[in-house]
Design brief:
The complex is a heterodimer.
Chain A lengths: L2 H6 L7 E2 L2 E2 L1 E2 L10 H14 L9 H21 L7 E4 L2 H11 L9 E5 L8 H10 L2 E5 L9 H8 L5 E5 L11 H10 L3 E5 L11 H4 L3 E5 L10 E5 L1 H6 L10 E4 L4 E3 L13 H16 L5 H17 L4 E4 L8 E6 L4 H9 L3 E2 L1 E3 L4 H7 L4 E5 L6 H18 L1
Parallel strand pairs in A: 3-15, 5-6, 5-7, 7-8, 8-9
Antiparallel strand pairs in A: 1-2, 4-10, 9-10, 11-12, 13-14, 14-17, 16-17
Chain B lengths: L11 H5 L6 H9 L3 H14 L21 E8 L2 E8 L2 H14 L2 E2 H6 L2 H7 L14 H13 L1
Antiparallel strand pairs in B: 1-2, 2-3
Helix pairs in contact in B: 2-3, 3-4, 4-7
Classes of the chains: A alpha/beta, B alpha+beta.
């Protein structure tokens, strides 16, 4: 596959908006979907649609086989050790909520929960709610002035023996990569459970959960070229098995009577209700799609593009970049000096350049940067140098207009 | 943050004299032939709007659903409605100016008849008036019409 062929997998990128080509630099919000993903879902609905598990007929058996084969695909892709360690969720947010809810009875008053200072709200609020239920305390792990996690401060906080450490693998607002292998080892040595939000990582990095050695790793399908409405909760078997199910009902039970219900085994125990079957099939296609890109050395392509984007932005006058390191992935965050990010976003939109402007669901991070929000341009496997040049040209026009 | 809502400290004249813009400025925006010209004029409007003193930038007056902070106050004088508003973003402030140009000093009946969708279509800015836009204009229109209803 050539890069042009790859790009053709995304017809949405070839559309014209008011006679102009779309310049999509908002992949971190959601990625576009390749034909192989939409086709897999279409084929499922056209040929295989049936409910999964407890199959009493051929179609249901086939649907279940396809659904379960994606679990196996993900186990290999993430290098998990057991099938039951892969739980399908509706996305990252739900997955974190499932863990936070599921741990309730294991958390005691005055327990300490540490949360990455650059975390997305989805990796903050569920812990706050858990703390409210249990009397535990949530403390932010501070960042250094260059927006990286402050390792010294982290070590000091670990000395206070937290029960859980919640980290981002990649910061959604800034694109900074946390050294999760080392951080997890330190947290583990201090006796803490670890959860890593991989929502912004899985599309840009190879993830090996055994080498990270975290207890939980979560991500969404839609940011890695898969459909919306599906995500993954990876957990070590014995950790998942300790979680109290957040949702109860169909699929997850063993026996039900009006006097007593017993829950089934993993993974079903944490997958109550009919799952997003077609979306899981789509996610499987997205994983195959990403695996097929290995020959294109796509992560190196992305790294080159992101560094080019950072350099082109830095070359503009009166611009602030936030935590823009050469080893970042996916996104770059910036503001034009003295300009509100929303003005910049509106004027880029007029030129059919799609970026995101706002607090990026990371208000504590914005507060620590002392800004109300910022602009975020993000790239994916389909992004080209032309996209970046076009964005920079559009940004020149924005600057001119705002002067 | 300020303790008391500043609405009570505003004089009637603050409302009546707030908008120092001319109707022809809206017409000129409607007639702009390219987007650059349109948005340049929009930002000119925003420059001519009175900037809120920090005491008026009160959370109680915040327009919901706006990515930038925007504040609005309403007062009914006689049978006419007056609004004063500001935003930290220039384009949003320009959009607010256009909305106020159409709504300032209008009676309840006039405001109830006002069709914001039509008006922004006439201005060539219909894309900015959508509940899914984070510019707060849609919420501001609702605020104005709610004020007219009471």
């Amino acid at each position: 596959m050539t890069h042009a062929e790859l790009r053709n997998q995304f017809p949405i990128l070839n559309q014209q908006v008011d006679g102009h080509a779309l310049c999509y630099l908002d992949t971190a919000a959601t990625s576009q979907k390749p034909l192989v993903v939409t086709e897999a879902m279409r084929q499922f609905y056209l040929q295989t649609n049936a409910n999964v598990h407890r199959a009493a007929h051929r179609l249901s058996t086939e649907a279940t086989e396809q659904y379960e084969s994606v679990r196996s695909q993900l186990m290999h892709w993430l290098n998990a050790s057991r099938l039951e360690e892969i739980i399908f969720t509706h996305g990252t947010t739900e997955a974190i909520n499932m863990v936070a809810h599921g741990l309730t009875e294991h958390i005691n008053p005055n327990d300490l929960i540490l949360v990455d200072g650059s975390a997305h709200h989805a990796n903050i609020v569920p812990w706050q709610q858990l703390a409210k239920r249990t009397g535990a305390t949530v403390t932010a792990i501070p960042l250094t002035t260059d927006c990286r996690l402050d390792r010294d401060a982290f070590r000091q906080l670990l000395a206070e023996k937290p029960v859980l450490v919640a980290l981002s693998h990649v910061s959604n607002a800034l694109g900074i990569v946390n050294p999760v292998v080392e951080l997890t080892a330190e947290a583990k040595a201090a006796g803490a459970l670890t959860l890593i939000d991989g929502a912004q990582a899985v599309a840009h990095l190879n993830v090996d959960v055994q080498s990270i050695d975290c207890d939980f790793y979560v991500f969404s399908g839609h940011k890695m070229y898969g459909p919306t409405g599906v995500g993954v909760l990876y957990g070590k078997y014995h950790q998942l098995d300790r979680l109290q199910p957040m949702l109860t009902g169909g699929e997850m039970i063993k026996t039900v009577s009006f006097s007593r219900t017993t829950f089934g085994q993993l993974p079903n125990r944490l997958e109550a209700g009919t799952p997003a079957i077609a979306e899981v099939i789509g996610l499987g296609a997205a994983v195959r799609f990403m695996q097929s890109l290995i020959t294109l050395d796509i992560f190196a392509h992305e790294a080159t593009l992101l560094q080019y984007l950072q350099q082109q932005l830095q070359a503009l006058d009166d611009i602030h970049l936030y935590g823009a390191h050469p080893d970042n992935v996916g996104v770059v965050a910036f503001n034009l000096a003295d300009e509100h990010h929303q003005d910049v976003g509106i004027l880029l939109d007029q030129q059919h350049v799609a970026i995101r402007c706002g607090h990026h669901c990371a208000m504590p991070l914005m507060a620590s940067l002392d800004i109300p929000g910022c602009c975020r341009a993000s790239i994916g496997v389909y992004t080209t140098k032309q996209d970046i040049d076009r964005f920079i040209e559009a940004l020149h026009s924005v600057k001119e207009l705002l002067e | 943050m300020n303790s008391a809502p500043p609405q009570t400290k505003l004089n009637d004249s603050d409302f009546q004299e707030f908008l120092q813009l001319q109707q022809h400025q809206a017409e000129s925006i409607a007639q702009a032939t390219n987007w650059q010209d349109k948005y340049r004029q929009l930002m000119q409007l925003s420059k001519q709007m009175t900037k809120f003193a920090p005491s008026l930038q009160h959370d109680d007056a915040l327009v919901q659903g706006c990515e930038s902070k925007a504040w609005v106050y309403h007062r009914k004088l006689g049978n006419k409605h007056y609004f004063i508003a500001d935003s930290e973003a220039r384009i949003v402030k320009g959009l607010i100016a256009l909305l106020l140009l159409a709504c300032q000093g209008k009676t309840t009946e006039e405001l109830q008849r006002f069709d914001a969708r039509d008006h922004f279509h006439y201005l060539g800015l219909e894309g900015q008036l959508s509940p899914s836009r984070a510019n707060g204009l849609y919420a501001l229109v609702n605020t104005i019409q709610a004020a007219a209803a009471c």
